[in-house]
Amino acid sequence: MHHLPSPASSGGSHGATLAEGNHGGHAAHQQSAYSAAYGYATDRVQEFWDRLRGKGRRPVGWLESGRNIVLSSSLNVLLLFIPFAWASHWEIAQWGKDTTFALCFLAIIPLECMFDWGGEQMALYLGKDLGDLLIITLNNAVEAVLAIILLVKCELRLLQSTIVGVVILHLLLIPGTAFLVGGYNIRQQTLHPHSTDLNHSLLMVGVLATLLPTAFFAALDRGASAVTAAGTEAGSALVNDATRGEILKMSRGIALMLLTVYIASRIYMHNPPGENNALTVPHDAPAPIQHEEKELLEEEPLVNPWACMILLAVTVALMAVTAEFLVESIDAVRETSGIQEEWFGLILLPIVSFSADGAVAILFFFQSIYNHITHKKNLVPSMLARGRAIDLSIQFTLWWMPVVVLLGWWTSRPMHLLFDYLEVALLLGSCFLVNYVTADSKTNWVEGLIMVVFYFMIALVTWFYPGQPEVAFMLNCEGTVAEALAAGGEGGAEAAASEAAALLARMF
């Protein structure tokens, strides 16, 4: 038997129901507002985590991952040089510093190749945006490690020339080789879609940042005679600790500004204006970019993400140790070979990072000839097809160069942005040529040949260039500029004579 509620109880119940309804509507409104504000972010975090774990993909076991890592490149056979390089450094085998340098050079080649392969595999788990950033960072890892080690060892003059050499290498030799080898049998190549105008602007501001302190120092000169190669004019009004202090202050300020520009550009690139565009390919992105993201989603990885992370961490550790041994053997190699410090930094050390790409390019060239004869299709290796060389230069000039300057500040090392006049001219010329070649986002093998030939022109000129003595004195790491000038004056005649003899020997 059902009892009807009394009016009183009915009214009370109705009032309670209304109250609950109002409260429930308010809660629903709050929940809706919360979902609108945070739901997208929560979904994106979950989506990122699912992709990083490889959800929805074929699981790759640890044994299969290890096998694929070992077989990732034929250059991995050069990993056998690592224990021999370390043994030579620790003098377990009495092979000398020249042998140590050569073994370390060869050992770094497969490590650089492993960075590229591991970055490509992680891009499958991270997506195009974060994947590209990771690959660019890993491809700059060799140069960054060398730069930091040179800073710690107080080889500041060599560090400066290496920075310039790395940027020139990324602007000329690496893309030039890719254009030359990849386009020998086609009319033109279309570059990967990038924000070309933005990249040109970022590259130019990074190069111009090196021009400012150098132009400041040149303007102060007002035509007066600076320090000679022998360092005899110790009373120079320009090369002193006060001038170096001013250049250090402006260099550190410029470094902070360059870092700000780079971070802002990454925010713009990876979170462009518009809704729900962060770390994703926008719906209105060009078709080639959407196609590349689709390929990353559909391609099956060869290694699981955790094994890939361990691989990259181990590779970084091996790279750091091997690069340190390489740097420690530099002085002995310079003394025995008679190579100018300028050429050593501008050409030889940066070539270490190009060795893997160069080896792949040579192998691909001969394989292309064979495939052309046998009428087989050419498959361009990823490190040649991606065309990220300009991005490498941008990151190095806007991120790693300022970081090295600030690390020098933190460790009380006078690392500044007063570069050699010739180095600045080489940077500007290289930047101008690259911007001109890539302005229409199309290129061909002749333009690649032009870039490679210009790089060899630079190598030829710098082979005979002894460097600016003023810059060397201003980078004195062991004491004051005055002490460097006094030491230069004492040994100036002997140094000048030996340099002249070495120059004549190279010429004739």
Can you put this structure into words, describing what you see?
The chain is mainly α and 508 residues long. It contains 20 helices and two strands. It has a two-stranded antiparallel ribbon. Helix 4 crosses helix 13 and helix 7 runs parallel beside helix 13. The chain is globular, with a radius of gyration of 29 Å. It starts with 6 loop residues before the first helix and ends with a helix. The N terminus and C terminus are likely disordered.
Q: What Rg is obtained from the alpha carbons, in whole angstroms? A: 29 Å
Assembly type of the chains comes to: single chain
Adjacency order of strands in the biggest sheet: 1-2
Tally of helical runs = 20
Task: Report a brief summary of the structure.
The protein is an all-alpha fold. The chain has helices at 7-53, 62-70, 81-89, 97-126, 128-139, 141-152, 156-182, 196-221, 241-270, 287-298, 305-328, 330-337, 341-373, 382-385, 389-410, 421-437, 445-463, 469-474, 481-490, 492-507, and strands at 189-190, 442-443.
